[in-house]
Amino acid sequence: METGCYSSGSEYRGWAAEALHREAVSIRLSHTEGQFRLAHCLLALDRGRGHVALGFSSVESYAAARLDVTRQKVRELLRVARVLERIPVMRQAFRTGQMNWAEFENSLGTSRPRMTLS
Questions:
Q1: Measured between alpha carbons, how far is 7 from 58 in angstroms, rounded to an integer?
Q2: Rounded CA gap, 102 and 12, in Å?
Q3: Over its length of 118 residues, how does the chain's per-residue pLDDT go in tens digits?
Q4: Which of 16, 36, 66, 94 is the most buried (most CB within 10 A)?
């Protein structure tokens, strides 16, 4: 879904490759941070039963109706938030961008997470 001035990519016309790379990295880190924050916000709603106060029977129902997030994605986010609470080093790596979402997901089944250092 394209909206606003970012719909055509024309704002990047004429940018040098290195500048485009820095912009892409910044956007990716913002996305990862957003996923991190959303996961913890949904966990707080779930634990505090905030979804009930908002008129929903589950946090999954709330997120589907109000945030356009699938139930499966909500369950994944909640699982991630719970894991991050228990493993501070992984939480820090994820939050600072040393580990991206896919690497985090892949590491859940292993004892040693793979990290991308930049």
A1: 34
A2: 27
A3: 444 445 567 788 899 999 999 998 888 778 878 888 899 999 999 999 999 999 999 999 999 999 999 999 999 899 989 988 998 888 888 777 788 777 777 777 644 444 343 3
A4: 94
How far is CA 30 from each of CA 15, 34, 100, rounded to the nearest angstrom? 20, 6, 11
**What are the structure tokens assigned to 41, written together?**
């916000």
CA distance 40 to 53: 18
Largest CA distance in the chain: 50
> Which DSSP letter does residue 11 get?
G
How many residues are given for the chain? Answer: 118
Cα 13 to Cα 2: distance, rounded to the nearest angstrom: 17
